[in-house]
Specification:
By secondary structure, the chain is an alpha/beta fold. It has helices spanning 42-50, 72-77, 95-103, 111-117, 133-145, 163-180, 191-197, 215-219, 222-230, and strands spanning 2-13, 16-27, 31-35, 56-62, 65-66, 80-82, 151-155, 183-187, 200-205, 208-213. The chain contains nine helices and ten strands. The strands form two sheets. A six-stranded mixed sheet has the order 6-7-8-3-9-10, sandwiched between helices. α3 packs parallel to α5 and α6 packs parallel to α7. Bound molecules: adenosine-5'-diphosphate and magnesium ion. Residues 42-43, 85 line the site of magnesium ion.
Amino acid sequence: MNAIEGIDLTRRYGGFIALDSVSIAVSEGQIRGLIGPNGAGKSTLIDVLSGRAENRSGTVRLFGEDISSYSVQERRRSGLARSFQRTNIFPGLSVVEQLDLAARYAEQPNVDEVLHELGLVPYAFQRAADISYGDQRRLDLALALIGRPRVLLLDEPAAGLTMQESMEAAEMLRDLAQRWGVTVLIVEHDMDVVFGICQHITVLHLGKILAEGSPQEIKKNPEVITAYLGSAA
Ligand SMILES: Nc1ncnc2c1ncn2[C@@H]1O[C@H](COP(=O)(O)OP(=O)(O)O)[C@@H](O)[C@H]1O
Ligand SMILES: [Mg+2]
């Protein structure tokens, strides 16, 4: 069973095609890595799947149900959550206030559960602006986990963290996804992290799918190597 499926997804910015007829299917329970050089269209794909983008076309299915015409909020209520590449938190609100806000319309307002899972209990009553950057990123993830989504789209959740912190965050995520039965599509630029937690990887380049496969297949794919070397500057 595919948890989330995008078929023929296209997204234009004026005359520029940022996402060009991309199709992707992530089976239930999988942690899928989404990689590609800067500007490849990774965030755009997450936007289109989550219903955020305008000027988009194509079909999105969530556990077989066509949700293409659903708004962001309707998708969220159907079990599709996302996080953003840049933090989406309100700096002036406390950790628990933000989680309460996110839980307002959730069928399962699991604020306490999420606080515990992400180790945010000690910071619950601190303003988001006053906690460490690493804890802010965990709060981003926590916000996406409110309501126990069935599918999580994560756009560089470990951006700005050290290698060690990224690895710990990734392992925590893998463990949580397994216990909750969440399917994950994760954008992550660190290859060690991606190869460490994903069974399957999709590579985007210039708005198209360049390759798809296991970490072993992706690592030795000559087109993938060229795409990365070509954008090394
Ligand atoms: N708001 C926008 N207006 C115009 N072009 C955009 C906009 N957002 C993104 N793009 C372009 O779309 C392409 C894909 O961007 P993005 O999805 O952010 O890439 P990635 O997340 O893989 O780095 C890039 O060429 C980027 O410059
Ligand atoms: Mg991006």
